[in-house]
User: Which sequence fits this backbone?
């Protein structure tokens, strides 16, 4: 089962090695060796990290590294475009590094450490045994050998420029990361963009730059409303996501052709020109493929294959004393660390809530809704719960603490027979929270 | 890029050289794609219009007594089954409607059986004014009835050999009524088998003053709010059942389907014939230009490169034909909708994609055979003029 | 003596039972002007097509410019033609809807990229600077043939093939075309193989071979 989950990651590892070998075609053997070593280092490092700091922190670190790599791609893309559109550009510090002989090894090492770390994060945290790690490294090693063989079969004319190499490697790393909901970048990115747009417009309202006045026509409100839609986050995220590769494509497209004016014979001159144009076109292939991989990563991030644990709410009744009692054992085992949803109805009102035993061994009772979003509820996946509305991940450790998009906690007491909750408090909390969010949402639109 | 621009120039020169043939091909492609576009636009806007009209006319809510059986799909009550017919109180329904504040056109119906010459006739009491407003598709031969008159459904009239001007004496539970037939009505639905008379007259004849079997409502609202209206009304009428009806004008939908099928077939025939004429013209062109092709190959063009030039010609023709086809097709569709449906079709920009696609597809499909010929052509023999 | 640009060994081409070219052994040194004579059906056009990579031999070996033409694929032959060979036909075979410049540019297009300035200067070189924008229909036979020459040499071929290039021309134009070819050859140093049945045209060459019924019957070296 775990092996199946790792297949896309190993596949992209294979792609990474392939493109690295082609990118540093002069140093095939050092690159391959560094790749294996780096991967192993990444696996061990991530394993140690996950063991010593279980929970969000270590995932956050890995995700930060991946995000850093993405930012680096942005830098590379801008630099490449700048360099290829303006000829006088020699003071680029990174150029020295790129031309250095050890650059290939450093680049490969960094890449494979990240790839290894991402693969290790995909292993189940508690079940990641030494044996599994060894198998993972072994598989990576075999794939490196396979890539060595496969690289020879690629057409010799397929060359990779340094920015294209960067684009392809980052694309594949992001693709690997997108298979893990906690390492994924695209969804948080579009979320950030959405919140930014939201805050931005809000600021404008506050500062009265957009007068809340009858003079403003309704269609104008329509446009302003667009900024609040989910679309803004998605499209904004898309732009940020794809721009670097598009820039790299443009930079290759704008590359100047070699100067052929000094060649006297027309036929030779034209032939050189044609060859240069063809080569330039071939150099576009790898970034175009990278663009596809980026799209695949965005797709996987938007439609994650992760299955959420999302039980249907069990209707419960209150005792005559106005208390909801949920037994610890019985039909539902409360202490299995999973989310258990309940539905309580009183008169025409109802409240949805869940009970969860968090990793530190304490119960928490929360509404199936937060103070911010529409009450779409939560699902549980791999040590987090996710808000279905805004796709925010909330680590299990922090469930039960109020604030943000966390589920709204409800006071309760644990007794020997089970969890006791005051029915009236439950209904009132739900009423206050959900009505408040509903009002905000309507007002926003 | 220069290569690409040169290719385009070459293609345009070649097309301009054979003006007559290019014009012919363009006409064929434009005709085919414009026809496809026009029929597409017409059927699209027709469909929309029918959907709109279905929404506009016809009841969308019906109120029936709680215990009555109603089979909406096949229409109406079956008096043979319901042994104890249940009724709605007209007053109650009116009150409920006022209270709910619904803006709804309404028509009241009472169905019953009257005896005529040893036979039981199914009759319906209605307000003819409401009927004319709510069911504009009823076709009447004769005049709408005055007091003491009746209209007969066309099926029933044929069966009983009744015609306008005849007088019927109908025996009810309470009274006997004497009615003159003022017209024959046909709607294409179950109404064709019924006899219609004014609601109060039937209520008196049956001794059911103020009672109804059915109320049809036309609420001017769509989607969700219809459900809400139904719900609101239901809560005010506990003894009745309020149902939503998709009063689909089955006849017009069936007609639409047939017209669409016809259009589809016409389009298919046109496309096939256009495709074959494109193929024919293209192959004569290629035959004529054998020497040119041989020359290009002799100069060092690979088979693919030479084929690309001819494909380029097909693509340029296809694009031009598609654009012309869209413009032309829009005009045709306007004309059709104006003359046939006396309304103007809307401009649908995305149909440009369809006409472009049709035209390109035809141009490329028609060129497949000639392209193979171009690919295979032997330069030595063609240059010798064989 | 210069190294051979064309080397044939038992070169044979038969169409079914008819043998158009009997086994032929021939060497053409680089830079030579070879005239091939014989009446129609003697196999001289077949020979030219084989050397120009337009046709494939049925037997024997054929090396042109160090390239074994038998080993080349269909597209490989096309690449060979565009980079190595320029052909002038008796019928001119200019594309009727393209102007003189564009006809030259067509050859550039198949070779690499079209370059209008270069095509213009090539036409100026053959003395057609004033007829750049004319279509073939508006040019005389001699002018058309000069466009063909410009087109044939535009890609700097090593080998120029002429298939009765003066067959349709009057005496004055013939002399003009031949003079032009001679001048260009002096500058560009290409090898010329010219098929003709005109004894006078053949004398422009360094060497003449006579084909009859597909067999090399006689060889003659010009003194000049």
Assistant:
């Amino acid at each position: 089962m775990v092996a199946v989950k790792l297949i896309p990651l190993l596949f992209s590892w294979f792609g990474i090695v392939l493109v690295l070998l082609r990118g540093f075609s002069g140093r095939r053997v050092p690159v391959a060796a560094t790749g294996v070593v780096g991967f192993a280092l990444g696996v061990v490092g991530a394993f140690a990290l996950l063991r010593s700091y279980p929970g969000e922190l270590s995932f956050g670190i890995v995700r930060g590294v991946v995000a850093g790599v993405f930012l680096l791609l942005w830098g590379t893309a801008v630099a490449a475009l700048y360099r290829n559109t303006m000829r006088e550009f020699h003071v680029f510090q990174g150029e020295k590094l790129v031309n250095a002989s050890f650059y290939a090894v450093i680049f490969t090492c960094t890449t494979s450490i990240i790839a290894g770390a991402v693969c290790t994060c995909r292993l189940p945290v508690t079940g990641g045994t030494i044996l599994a790690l060894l198998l993972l490294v072994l598989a990576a090693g075999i794939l490196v050998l396979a890539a060595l063989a496969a690289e020879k079969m690629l057409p010799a004319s397929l060359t990779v420029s340094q920015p294209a190499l960067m684009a392809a490697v980052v694309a594949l790393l992001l693709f690997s990361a997108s298979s893990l909901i906690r390492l994924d970048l695209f969804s948080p990115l579009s979320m950030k963009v959405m919140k930014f747009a939201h805050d931005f417009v809000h600021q404008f309202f506050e500062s009265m730059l957009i007068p809340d006045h009858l003079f403003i026509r309704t269609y104008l409100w329509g446009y302003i409303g667009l900024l609040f839609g989910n679309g803004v986050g998605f499209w904004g995220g898309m732009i940020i996501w794809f721009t670097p590769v598009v820039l790299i494509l443009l930079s290759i497209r704008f590359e100047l052709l070699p100067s052929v004016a000094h060649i006297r014979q027309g036929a030779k001159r034209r032939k050189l020109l044609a060859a240069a144009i063809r080569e330039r076109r071939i150099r576009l292939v790898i970034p175009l493929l990278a663009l596809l991989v980026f799209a695949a990563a965005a797709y996987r991030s938007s439609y994650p294959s992760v299955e959420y644990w999302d039980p249907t709410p069990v209707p419960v009744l209150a005792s005559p004393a106005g208390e909801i009692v949920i037994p610890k054992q019985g039909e539902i085992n409360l202490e299995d660390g999973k989310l258990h949803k309940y539905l309580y109805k009183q008169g025409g009102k109802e409240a949805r809530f869940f009970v969860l035993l968090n990793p530190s061994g304490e119960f928490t009772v929360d509404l199936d809704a937060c103070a911010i979003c529409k009450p779409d509820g939560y699902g549980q996946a791999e040590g987090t719960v996710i808000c279905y509305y805004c796709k925010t991940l909330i680590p299990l450790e922090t469930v039960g603490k109020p604030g943000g998009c966390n589920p709204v906690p409800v006071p309760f007491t644990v007794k020997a027979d089970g969890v006791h909750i005051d029915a009236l408090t439950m209904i009132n909390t739900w009423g206050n929270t959900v009505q408040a969010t509903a009002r905000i949402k309507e007002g926003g639109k | 890029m220069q290569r690409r621009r040169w290719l385009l120039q070459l293609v345009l020169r070649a097309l301009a050289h054979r003006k007559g043939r290019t014009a012919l091909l363009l006409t064929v492609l434009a005709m085919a794609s414009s026809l496809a576009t026009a029929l597409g636009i017409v059927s699209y806007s027709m469909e929309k219009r029918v959907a709109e009209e279905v929404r506009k006319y016809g009841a969308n809510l019906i109120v029936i007594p709680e215990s009555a059986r109603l089979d909406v799909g096949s229409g109406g009550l079956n008096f043979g089954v319901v042994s104890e017919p249940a009724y709605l109180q007209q007053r109650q329904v009116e009150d409920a409607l006022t209270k709910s504040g619904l803006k709804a056109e309404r028509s009241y119906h009472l169905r019953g059986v009257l005896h005529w010459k040893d036979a039981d006739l199914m009759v319906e009491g209605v307000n003819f004014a409401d009927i004319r407003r709510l069911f504009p598709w009823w076709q009447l031969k004769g005049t709408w009835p005055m007091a003491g008159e009746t209209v007969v459904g066309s099926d029933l009239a044929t069966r009983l050999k009744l015609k306008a001007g005849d007088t019927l004496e109908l025996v009810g539970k309470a009274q006997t009524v004497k009615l003159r037939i003022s017209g024959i009505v046909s709607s294409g639905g179950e109404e064709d088998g019924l006899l219609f008379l004014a609601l109060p007259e039937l209520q008196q004849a049956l001794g059911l003053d103020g009672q109804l079997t059915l109320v049809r409502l036309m609420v001017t609202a769509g989607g969700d709010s219809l459900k809400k209206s139904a719900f609101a009304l239901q809560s005010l009428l506990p003894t009745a059942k309020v149902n939503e009806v998709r009063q689909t004008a089955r006849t017009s939908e069936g007609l639409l389907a047939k017209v669409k099928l016809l259009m589809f077939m016409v389009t298919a025939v046109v496309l096939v014939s256009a495709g074959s004429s494109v193929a024919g013209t293209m192959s004569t062109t290629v035959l004529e230009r054998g020497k040119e092709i041989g020359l290009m190959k002799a100069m060092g063009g690979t088979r693919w490169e030479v084929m690309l030039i001819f494909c380029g010609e097909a693509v340029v023709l296809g694009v031009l034909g598609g654009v012309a086809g869209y413009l032309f097709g829009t005009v045709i569709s306007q004309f059709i909708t104006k003359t046939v449906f006396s309304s103007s079709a809307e401009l649908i920009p995305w149909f440009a994609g369809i006409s472009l696609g049709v035209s390109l597809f035809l141009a490329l499909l028609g060129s497949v055979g000639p392209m193979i010929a171009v690919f295979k052509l032997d330069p030595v023999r063609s240059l010798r003029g064989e | 003596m210069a190294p051979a640009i064309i080397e044939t060994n038992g070169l044979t081409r038969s169409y079914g039972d008819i043998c158009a070219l009997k086994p032929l052994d021939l060497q053409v040194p680089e830079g030579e002007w070879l005239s091939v004579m014989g009446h129609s059906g003697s196999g001289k056009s077949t020979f030219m097509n084989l050397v120009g990579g337009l046709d494939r031999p049925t037997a024997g070996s054929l090396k042109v410019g160090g390239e074994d033409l038998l080993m080349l694929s269909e597209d490989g032959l096309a690449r060979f033609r565009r980079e190595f060979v320029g052909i002038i036909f008796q019928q001119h075979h200019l594309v009727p809807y393209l102007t003189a410049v564009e006809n030259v540019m067509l050859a550039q297009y198949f070779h690499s990229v079209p370059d209008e300035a270069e095509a213009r200067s090539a036409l100026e070189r053959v003395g057609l600077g004033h007829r750049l924008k004319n279509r073939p229909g508006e040019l005389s036979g001699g002018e058309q043939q000069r466009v063909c020459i410009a087109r044939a040499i535009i890609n700097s071929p090593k080998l120029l093939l002429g298939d009765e290039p003066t067959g349709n021309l009057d005496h004055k134009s013939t002399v003009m075309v031949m003079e032009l070819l001679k001048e260009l050859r002096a500058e560009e140093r290409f090898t010329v193989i010219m098929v003709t049945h005109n004894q006078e045209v053949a004398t422009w060459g360094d060497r003449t071979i006579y084909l009859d019924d597909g067999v090399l019957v006689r060889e003659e070296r010009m003194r000049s």
User: Anything to note?
Assistant: Confidence is low (pLDDT under 50) at residues 69-83 of chain B. The CA atoms of residues 18 and 98 of chain B lie 76 Å apart. Chain B has two domains: 2-53+252-384, 58-248.
